[in-house]
Amino acid sequence: MRRWLALVAAAPLLAAQPVPLQLPAGTPVLLETAQPLSSKTAVNGDRVELRTVKDVLAGTVVVIPKGTRAVGQIADARAKGAMGMSGRLTVSPLYIAFGDRYIRLVGAAVRRARVSGGGVVGLATLGAAFTGRSAVMPEGAPVEATTLSAVTIDIAPVAAP
Amino acid sequence: MHVIALALLQVSVPVARPPLQPPPQVELSAPAPLVILARDTPVELMAPTEVSTDHAKPGTRFKLRVNKPVVVNGRTIVPVGTPAYGEVVTASASEALGVSGKMTARLIAIRLGEVEIPLDGQVSAKGTGAGSAGMAILFTGVAGLFHRGNNAKIKAGELVTGFVAHDIALDVSGPSPRLAVPAPLPVSVAPPAPTAQ
Predict the structure, then answer these.
(1) Phi, then psi, of A3 in degrees rounded to 5
(2) Is residue B21 part of a domain?
(3) Which CATH number characterizes residue A103's domain?
(4) What domain count does chain A have?
(5) Which residues are A145's β-sheet partners?
(6) Which domain holds residue A61?
(7) Nearest to A83 among B125, B134, B163 (CB)
(8) Is A85 in Cβ contact with B161 (below 8 Å)?
(9) B117 is in which domain, residue-wise?
(10) How confident is the model at residue B79 (pLDDT cuts 50, 70, 90)?
(11) Which of A18, A70, A135, B160 could cross-link with A87 by S-S, CB 3.0 to 4.6 Å?
């Protein structure tokens, strides 16, 4: 009887033990920008703060919870130019900082400034002097990424709701 | 009875033993403090000088420097300013008709004192050119066709992110980190297996 009681008492402790979970390469991770960006001010190489939009699961277990910080970089920033040339902005996700581990990511989010009807009229009337618009990425803009390589993480599992 | 007495006598006879030798003194030194720089640890680097397809060719090595310290367990392992280097992998120069240059480069290593920390990471750059070529054709006509595009550049001051390529153990007991020499594995001496007669 005592043995049974001891086992029942130890059950939650055993359940909380960290277990190694593997996140395979190519696992999709949906991110969003945590700050507004513009091709007017962004420079190649600038760090970009990102965060996960959804829980990342290994089976039914949450490995990376929603809202986890990730870091990206401006891979290409082109300012608007003459002749109605629009700005362009490319954000590449780099990694998720997860405790003392780093999960490397690949992917890109590209944003080009749209040319409006007024822009076309401006280009036709002002010609080369007419400049395009800057590319803007508001806070919360989606950035699709996937994990670069398989990662094994020791975590106390939290079942997905 | 006699047999028992004889046996007792044999037991009580003092056996001549060699004098006890003091055990050899073993120098017990504290293990060298080791720090593991884990694979995929990000390293922020900066290009101190411009790398351009104007002069860079595949195989050209270029300098970088660590822009943010790499800290492990609250200890700065790689300080700001530590030199690093990369290598141009592909480079195509700009051409007429506004064709812009393209370049890809890979990061190779950080030079931390005598230790090389291998890096993983790529940089790609593309020159702008379409707009300027259009302007040239607009203002100079046919001569504008000879307008060259811009070279691809890693601009001076541009930030580049690399990652530690594999786990590396560093001995940080000295003034500058050294590669930790792995301790020899304990050799277990198993009794010889009985041979079949």
Answers:
(1) -60, -45
(2) no
(3) 2.40.128.260
(4) 1
(5) A29, A107
(6) 18-159
(7) B134
(8) no
(9) 41-90+102-125+154-174
(10) very high
(11) A135
